[in-house]
Specification:
Length: about 500
């Protein structure tokens, strides 16, 4: 009887298909998840009561954070399913749930149309997104790791690690593309829905690809041997030794990694747009360019962790974050701060227009542009109806030098993100046995990232707002940084003392 052999090149092609199929689906899920945060400023006006811009913005950030808070529940529900039924079908379900929720957000009428039902529906859909993501990442990372050859799991799982940042990058790119095509007014009116609705097409493509995937070989092996866990939740968290590993992974690694991830990308975007008042387009271009520059380092640090170990790379990223956040954000703030810069008064321009709104009231709009010697400019726009006090909106346009310096400072933060995030998938999957791996690794990852990390934009912004007093109405612009610094510092200390510097193991059972 003839035997069939599989060449190494065939195995390698199969492995790259596994990585590509897993990564595309995970990228789309992150794209869906991060659209909400990327459009927080607009969504606050669409789905929440108007009148207090700060309260509305914090409401959106709280809704954004709600999607993170439920991720651990998704990890438990889908982790159990993944350890009982299989990796492939579980994260196929999460993809459908995420895509459907995102598509639905694009169809929800605004607060002006359906009142309090608008935020209630959006919060519900956001919670479904969080549940879906809670099951997606653990499945994708586990699936790739269980296909990867010994000694290279850090390298191969690092491609899954790029998908979170690439998902954010794609969401920013789609938003800017739609906004550029429709124009600012049309985009702010209804065009913001397009990126959400577009999700349905992306998810359909990913589902088609994932249906062609086979089950993980390690899971297939224990299934054939009848060694599948009957109760993955009990074995993961009821077993003292395994629970100890779960807690160590959470407090010694994923909590610190989570706050570094969200500070370096999402809070950076919030800080530049809201605190520094840099305009919408420039803010997202700065983040997008930094992500393009930094993303390949996820793969580099994943590969390097196979050589020198996971721990030291992750701990170095956390320590650098603790030491650098305050000085880096001070430099970012100074780049956009026009109070200490000399204005070129002779270049100042003022334009006014008068029109009539739908109610027949007279509307006067004015735009004043101030220019400064460092190349920055400030555009102040105001609209006045009848004798009402005009609402003034100020946006800073960074000059070329300051713009690229801002890109450099955000890129530095993205480098720290790649250090803590690149090796962590391999670190987590190697920590737990196959029969409870999906459940065991998913929970600490999603508590660290979903709760500790996901709350970063909200808590940091809230700390900044709380720092405002009558004596100091501007507040401390850097008050929000104390939260990620404290969490990253605590994780660094715990991780340095209790984690082993694990390199790629030859056998993963």
């Amino acid at each position: 009887m003839a035997t069939t052999t599989v060449s190494p090149s065939t195995d390698k092609r199969k492995l790259w298909f596994v990585i590509s199929a897993s990564s595309v689906g995970t990228l789309i899920e992150w794209y869906d998840f991060y659209l909400f945060g990327s459009l927080a400023t607009i969504l606050s006006a669409k789905f929440f009561p108007t009148g207090n811009e700060t309260v509305g913005y914090l409401s959106v950030l709280a809704t954004f954070a709600a999607g993170f808070i439920v991720r651990p529940f998704g990890a438990i529900v889908f982790g159990r399913l993944g350890d009982r039924v299989g990796r492939k079908y579980t994260f196929l379900v999460t993809l459908v749930l995420m895509g459907g929720s995102t598509f639905a957000i694009g169809l929800v009428p605004g607060y002006d149309t359906i009142g309090i039902f608008a935020p209630l529906i959006v919060v519900t859909l956001r919670l479904l997104q969080g549940l879906a993501l809670g099951g997606e990442y653990g499945g994708a990372a586990t699936y790739v790791a269980e296909h990867a050859p010994p000694g290279k799991r850090g390298f191969y799982t690092s491609f899954i690690q790029t998908t979170a940042t690439l998902g954010l990058f794609v969401s920013i790119g789609v938003i800017l593309g739609v906004r550029q095509s429709l124009g600012v007014d049309e985009f702010n009116d209804w065009g913001w829905r397009v990126p959400f609705i577009l999700s349905a097409v992306l998810v359909a493509v990913s589902i088609y690809i994932r249906l062609k995937m086979q089950e993980s070989p390690l899971f297939s092996k224990i299934k054939a041997e009848g060694k599948i866990s009957r109760n993955p939740i009990k074995e993961s968290f009821g077993n003292k030794e395994n629970l100890k590993l779960v807690l160590l992974a959470l407090f010694g690694a994923t909590a610190g990694q989570g706050v570094v991830w969200y500070t370096g990308q999402f809070y950076a975007m919030t800080f530049i747009e809201k605190t520094c008042q840099v305009d919408f387009i420039q803010t997202r271009n700065i983040i997008a360019i930094a992500l393009v520059i930094g993303t390949p380092l996820f793969i580099f640090f994943g590969w390097w962790s196979d050589k020198i170990g996971r721990k030291m790379i992750m701990m170095a990223g956390m320590l650098l974050a603790v030491l650098l956040y305050r000085p880096v954000y001070k430099m970012m703030y100074d780049l956009a701060d026009v109070k200490q810069q000399q204005e070129q008064v002779e270049r100042k321009t003022i334009s006014r227009t008068r029109s009539t709104n739908e109610q027949g009231a007279s509307v006067v709009s004015s735009k004043t542009t101030h220019f400064f010697l460092n190349g920055n400019s400030v555009v102040e726009s105001s609209t006045q109806v009848d004798d009402a006090a005009p609402a003034v909106k100020k946006e800073v346009q960074l000059g070329d030098h300051n713009y690229w310096m801002m890109v450099l400072l955000v890129t530095l933060q993205v480098v720290l993100v790649t250090m803590v995030y690149g090796p962590i998938a391999a670190f987590l999957v190697e920590l737990f046995p196959t029969k409870i791996r999906y459940t065991s690794m998913s929970l600490p990852y999603h508590i660290g990232n979903g709760v500790f990390g996901g709350l970063t934009p909200f808590l940091a912004t809230a700390l900044y707002e709380a720092s405002k007093t009558e004596a100091n109405p501007g507040g401390d612009p850097f008050a929000g940084l104390w939260y990620p610094i404290a969490v990253a510092g605590a994780s660094f200390l715990i991780g340095m003392v209790l984690l082993s510097n694990k390199k790629a193991e030859e056998v993963m059972e």
